[in-house]
Every structure is written in C-alpha cells, then in structure tokens.
C-alpha cells in the first residue's frame, strides 16, 4: 500500500521518505549552498547553544504543495530531528502573500543547511500545484468540470516527473501521462497514440486506430486525428470505421498550421485566427460528428493550452470534453524564502523581515520513516 493511501485513510498525517526516496548525498551537503555549510560549521564551533526559528513564506495567492516532502527531508537529514519543533500548513492549503507556511525551531547547525533545498521543494511543488489548480478551475468555467490531462513529460527533465505528478494531483489533475507521474500518489499513467504511431502507418489514421484497438482492446478508444491536418475528414473516417467503439478524437494541430477544413471553406475565414486548435474548428468538428450520428464521440483538445486559452474556450461554449495541458503547467513562477526570525526566543531578523505567527500552522509530530 502506498503511503498516500494511508494518508487518505487517516492512518498517517504526512508522507515520509518511504515515498520521496531522497538522494543520500543530501546528508553530506552535496545539494546545499556552500555558505550554508560554512555557517553550519561556524555555529557548531562558535554558537553551539543557539536556537533559531526559521520561517518560510512566498508572495502570491497560491495552492501550497511540498510541505510533506520538506518535513520528510528535515526528519531524514537533520541532526536529532526528533528535538526540532516544526509547525506547518498542509499540501493543498490555499495560501496568501507573505503568509507563514512553515516554521522550524532548533539549533541552526541541526537543520540550517537544508534551507535552500526546502525553498526549492516548496517553490516547484507550489508552482505546479497552483498552475494546475488554475487550469482545472478554468476548465469548469461553463459550470461543468471538464477533465485536465497533465502532459508535462516532455517539457522538463524526466527526473521531475514523480514530484510534478504529485503536485498536479494536489492541484486537481488525476489523469497524467506517465507512470512516473503517478509514483507518489496514483497507479498508472494514461494515453493513447502519438503522431509517431500514425507515421508508421503512413498517415492512415484508421489503420493506426485499428492496430491500437487490437493490441489494447480494453482501453477507451481515442484516435489522434490531426496528423494529416484534416481533423474533420479523419474524425469521420474513424467514426465510420469504429462506430460505438470510438470513445473520442484528439486534436493537437500545430499553432503554425491552418486545418484543411478552412482551406476548403475560405468563406468562413476573415474574423478569427484559423491556426492551430481553435474554437471554430472544434465547433465544425462537433457538428460534423453529430450530423452523422456520432454524438457519443468526445473531443479532446491538446496543444498550447493555458489557463487563459481554456477560459476563453469555455466562455465561448466550445464543445471540448477534455483538455490536455503540458508546458504552461510547469512555469516556475512562485519562489519561497526561509528566514531566521527568532534567536533564543526573541525577535531577531534581517531588516524587512519579522516573525509572522500564523494560527493556521499545525504542530508536526516526528515520525521516523524507517518505522
């Protein structure tokens, strides 16, 4: 059983290193800025009795993520972590600018060298969770929540997939492109066919879809229909070939191309941008499918979608059933700062910073991940 299942069942409060599987080199300071390591040594030699409170915050309205990971980091690599006092919000909490999301109190030399790593964990996880949350929210603008597939596998280094997938889960996306994205929270990734598959069938979308169905007969059958830049023609071909077996069609038209439907219907153009996946193309596709009795076939739209683009589509009532989003969900626009704000119980902080008590913070109990 994954820890996330235990957490959702209330058996544990937070995920631990059993989930995160940290690099052991963290213990020796390999990933810490050198000045933190030097400060650790100075504190050990010159101020061994110090007790500091380090406070973490950011500057946006956000969806917090990374607290379980940051706490597990401290519990795994700090010196005598059981003696530290940690208060924190939880993954998924909505947070405000400058709100304290976590405090850690104890000897600086015990945990201070982890400051930059904690900042980075919170920054990346919160950025992704917030981006996904905003996109998912945009996808229910019409009043009906439409699924958002997290497709960020090609937009960043592969080693980020597990953490990004968890952050996307916290943000509200439970359909994700790779197994790795599901490692911390789910079961398996999902997906149907890429353009590469259709290429091997020389652009024959029906043949490619037939092959997919024969090899994966229990999967929902969703055909990719923009390979030939003629989505309505190819959608109707697969709909006629597979009938009720066809669950959906996916459009991923490049934003530099104009679909052949518009080239055949010049009279429609002149009042909108006909490039890429656009509202008029999807309206026309929906009508073409409905006119031939394929009202059950859903439309999946991918390629260059952002929060603003989805909201625009939804405000227009564009008949998209599912959105696939990648690159825009991985914009790292939220940064965290850790500041020492108390020294031996009294206020002491750099100019412009101060201790900001937050009644929402909950005390974190120490839990050894080896238990």
Give an account of the 3D structure:
It is a single chain. By secondary structure, this protein is an alpha/beta fold. It folds into two domains: 3-128 and 333-364, nicotinate phosphoribosyltransferase (Alpha-Beta Barrel); 141-330, Aldolase class I (TIM Barrel, Alpha-Beta Barrel), CATH 3.20.20.70. Helix content is 35%, strand content 15%. The chain has 13 helices and 14 strands. The strands form three sheets. It has a six-stranded antiparallel beta sheet. Helix 13 (307-316) links the parallel strand 10 and strand 11. Helix 9 crosses helix 10. The longest helix has 24 residues, at 115-138. The protein is elongated. It starts with a helix and ends in a 7-residue tail after the last strand.
Quickly name the level 1 CATH class of the largest domain.
Answer: Alpha Beta
Task: Indicate the overall shape.
Answer: elongated
Helical element count? 13
First-residue to last-residue Cα separation: 15 Å
Q: Structural class, judged by helices and strands?
A: alpha/beta
- Kindly state the mean pLDDT as a whole number? 96
CATH superfamily membership of the largest domain = Aldolase class I
Count of discrete domains: 2
- Look up the CATH topology of the largest domain: TIM Barrel
SSE string, helices as H and strands as E = HHHEEHEEEHHEHEHHEHEHHEHEEEE
Low-confidence region ranges: none
Q: Care to count the β-strands?
A: 14
Helix content: 25-40%
Rounded to an integer, what's the Rg over CA atoms? 25 Å
Q: Largest beta sheet: what is the strand line-up?
A: 13-12-1-5-3-14
CATH architecture of the largest domain: Alpha-Beta Barrel
